Amino acid sequence: MSLDKDNPLGISWHDTAWIPLLNPNNILDYFGERSNPFYDRTCNNEIIKMQRLSQDQLNNMTGLEYMLLHVQEPILYVVRKQHRHSPQQVTPLADYYIIAGVVYQAPDLGSVINSRLLNTLFNLQSAFVEAQSFSRYTPSKGYWWEFSDQEDKSEKSDSKEKKEEPSSVFQRQRVDLLLGELARKFPPKVVPPTQPEVKEEPVKQEPVIKQEIKQERPDDKSNTSIKPPPDKKPKLMR
Length: 238
What we know:
There is one protein chain. By secondary structure, the chain is an alpha+beta fold. 34% of the residues lie in helices and 18% in strands. The protein has helices spanning 27-31, 44-51, 109-133, 149-162, 166-185, 218-225; strands at 12-13, 63-72, 76-84, 90-99, 102-105, 135-138, 142-145. The chain has a 5-stranded antiparallel β-sheet with strand order 1-5-4-3-2. A two-stranded antiparallel sheet has the order 6-7.
């Protein structure tokens, strides 16, 4: 048990002698132990206990009192502290829950909101600080983000590939030997792939046109161009 009068939410109390015997009939007596820091001895419950009256007499009294609010046997009990103004009018002040014999004070709404806001602000501040650590700036390039997660992941993957366990290496070698023996005993039958038949189309022969070039001899030109004079036949005289 840690005593902190300024913050009752951090206080817990229990009595090991009572824990095995707790039930709805004696839970208020357990809560009213003198060593319990949550119990106010000026309450009406203490007056009834001293006068040995029943708990029903609390409805006819005014002032501070404790009542059993909720029961979930055998582990959970909720006790409420309230101020009674009349038999029909009460003002709740605080709630206490008993779990496995340990008494705690339930936080009020203001404490819950304050705690959640503090957690939210802390998380936001840490997020801004972490984001600021990734920002970079140079006059020539300006602002940019540089994240180191990708580099760390690549380094971790490289280290994992390099650092293989010897058991995995041994298993891999054993599998390779077994595969080699099976390949020797049962060689695979290689079937040559069937090649599609290629039909040769007949090549069409184009007709060859022979061009004869007649070459004229220079002698022929001379003969044809220059003709000799006709021979004069002698006339026969009669």
